[in-house]
Amino acid sequence: MSVTKQLKKDIAILDAEITALEIKRSRSEAAIIEALVGGEEPTIDDIKYFRKYTAEIEEKRERIVLMQQQLDTVY
């Protein structure tokens, strides 16, 4: 498989993973917002999950940027 095709494939995979992580993160985000709107303190678990998913999303986005730069140099 050519480098270009492999990079495009890897970017597509990471993009799909980011989408799945964003869905998971939105659940914890909703729980945090619901607690705050209700005048309560969000649970530690909700905050941990939100931070965990956010960190994973950011890491994958950084990898996509690097791959996109590699792809741009190939052209």
Note the overall shape: rod-shaped
- How many whole angstroms does the radius of gyration measure? 17 Å
Largest sheet: none
Could you say which structural class the secondary elements and strand pairing correspond to?
mainly alpha
Oligomer: single chain
Overall mean confidence score, pLDDT: 96
Helix content: over 70%
The count of DSSP E runs of length 2 or more, i.e. the number of strands, is 0
Low-confidence stretches: none
**What separation lies between the terminal Cα atoms?**
16 Å
Q: How many alpha or pi helices?
A: 2
The secondary-structure element order is HH
Strand content range? under 5%
List the helices and strands and how they pair.
Elements (H helix, E strand, L loop, with lengths): L2 H35 L6 H31 L1
Helix pairs in contact: 1-2
What can you see in these coordinates?
This protein has 2 helices and no strands. With 75 residues, the protein is mainly α. Helix 1 packs antiparallel against helix 2 (44-74). The longest helix is centred in the N-terminal third of the chain and has 35 residues, at 3-37. The radius of gyration is 17 Å and the shape is rod-shaped. The protein starts with a helix and ends with a helix.
